[in-house]
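To whoever picks this up:

The nightly regression suite flagged Formamidopyrimidine-DNA glycosylase as changed. Nothing in the input moved, so I suspect the structure step. Input below, exactly as stored in the fixture:
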Amino acid sequence: MPELPEVETVRRGLAPTMEGARIVRLDQNRPDLRFPFPADFKARLEGRTITALSRRSKYLLADLSSGDVLVMHLGMSGSFRIEEEVEHTPGAFALARSKDPKHDHVVFHLKTAKGSDARVIYNDPRRFGFMTLVPRPQLSSHPLFANLGLEPLGNELNGETLSRLFAGKTTSLKAALLNQKLIAGLGNIYVCEALWRTGLSPTRQAGSIAGKSGKATAKTTALAGHIRETLKEAIEAGGSSLRDHTQADGSLGYFQHNFAVYDREGAPCRQAGCTGTIARIVQSNRSTFYCPKCQR
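Regenerated output under the current build:
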């Protein structure tokens, strides 16, 4: 499943073509993906202009001139392919994304803001992705978004906020960070990396780093900074390049070459002065990678 940096690189790759474009025609080649398309999906999209393309957590959001929002999720294997003057694929994926036409489930025929013709093709071999339409005024209360926590890239994520969110929590620090009701969009890879940078054990109780009455502590302040830092570096690198996740221009993301702990079981810790070895444990059926020596 692509994590937040992968989805953000897809958004940035699609935006130059899709923002301001009019959907001249839509090809919907099957009735469903993970979920059925809305019954009037094609009719509500054709003739509409895409006024903005944004991201909330791991969802892509295309605001339409009709007042609807096209909500898109990539699932496990979903990708977009842009056919303009040069064909390219937005995202951050290590293996080549599918171009098999039998998996081209949705095709947007666009007249771009520049006046050129373009096709944006959604291809999804496993069909775990989905698309739906939600009126903009109902978006925040929609079941997909109603319980999502704060965005980790915004200024709202700081030491004080983490102290408030973690206060009294006996669950592990990693579980708290992966709780989408607290912080939206954080995934396994970048949580492991941020905890290593902060020197905090993933098994430590979340409440143990919270300050009294929601006050920031040195640990919550450092963790908030390292979360933002890790995500921003991954976005700049084009994503983690894991498994079958490419960028808008079809190139690969290279953040995985900067992994300090993720998927490095048995390797020496990269923390300056640390003589520890990266270990792997399982938490909530997910692999956790960390250094038992320097992460406390």
